[in-house]
Amino acid sequence: MSARPTRIVIATHNPGKLREMRELLAPYGVEAVSAGELGLAEPDETGASFVENAVIKAEAAARASGLPAMADDSGLCVEALGDAPGIYSARWAGEAKDFAAAMSRIEREVLASGADASRRAHFVSAIALASPDGETQAFEGKVFGDLVFPPRGALGFGYDPIFKPDGHDRTFGEMASEEKHGIPADGSQALSHRARAFQLFARACLAR
Question: Has residue 208 got a pLDDT over 60?
Answer without folding.
Answer: no
